[in-house]
Amino acid sequence: MKLLGYIAILLFLLQIAGCGTLGHRGRHYGKDGPPPFDVDVSKIPDAVPKVGPYSKYGNPPSYFVKGHRYYVLKSSIGFEERGIASWYGMKFHKQRTSSGEPYNLLAMTAAHRTLPLPTYMLVTNLQNGRHVIVKVNDRGPFAENRIMDLSYVAAKKLGITAHGTGLVDIKAIDPTHPDRVLSQLSSSYVSTQPHNIHDVVNHPASVHSRLYLQLGAFSSHSNAQKLASKIYQHAAYPVHIKASTSGHTLYRVQIGPIPSVEASDKLVNQIEHAGLGKPLTVIE
């Protein structure tokens, strides 16, 4: 009888261990990735901007992650940003987001470091012109050269899941006046729902955006030239000094255009390792 009891306990513990491994948090997937089934994104609608209060969770005045303090914006009205977006999938499916909602890789959501939660955003892929509307309900990404983490399905709609990242423009939508942002969409942008998703990825629309790294901005051209001289030996791409006038002249030291996000990431590491600062990603 004792032996049968021990066997029963052992089977029970193994069952618990199995649940922990294959549980709802997706831990058994190890590295992040897509779901183990095909998703027809044409049947998943964009997020619908709604008027409502900010979440009670995820909106502290500031928070501290990986040695850096981030300050949450009090409002998202008028917010716009360009940069590199990534996505997250099965590894985080059903885990609690910063707003308290469970993450759903099949929902049109996203994560941002400083926008108040929730914020509705128009996200445009600058490499093919496709656009979606997402609800920002989570914090991240915390890699310095990424501006947004998209849900798996939002990223697939934009056509960036194959490469893992994409160059995007993000604009906050005021839910009381959503048409103010949506009416700005260029007629040159292709449809959000093409007949064949692979056609958009392999044959992008005539949307021209280039990726650069900016090392500094100076009011003195000579100071910009000094930095540019230091950069030449570390950059495998052209180094430029670009003058921009907005009240007063600034000389921006930039490297590029850079052909891919992967090449940009590698160059960022080289520049930081050389002690030349932390480059800023610029999309023009």
Outline the structure in words.
This protein is α+β, with helices and mostly antiparallel strands. It has six helices and twelve strands. A hairpin with a 5-residue loop joins strand 5 (119-125) and strand 6 (131-138).
What attributes does this structure have?
284 residues, alpha+beta, Barwin-like endoglucanases, Alpha-Beta Plaits, 3 domains, 6-stranded mixed beta barrel, 4-stranded antiparallel beta sheet, 12 strands, 27% strand
Helix content: 10-25%
Overall structural domain count: 3
Secondary-structure element string: HEEEEEEEHEHHEHEEHE
CATH superfamily of the largest domain: RlpA-like domain
Instruction: Write the CATH fold name of the largest domain.
Output: Barwin-like endoglucanases
Based on Cα principal axes, name the global outline. Answer: globular
Indicate the mean pLDDT. Answer: 82
Strand order of the largest sheet: 3-7-4-6-5-8
Largest sheet, if any?
Answer: 6 strands, mixed, barrel
SSE-based structural type: alpha+beta
Cα distance spanning the termini: 75 Å
Query: At the first level of CATH, what is the class of the largest domain?
Result: Mainly Beta
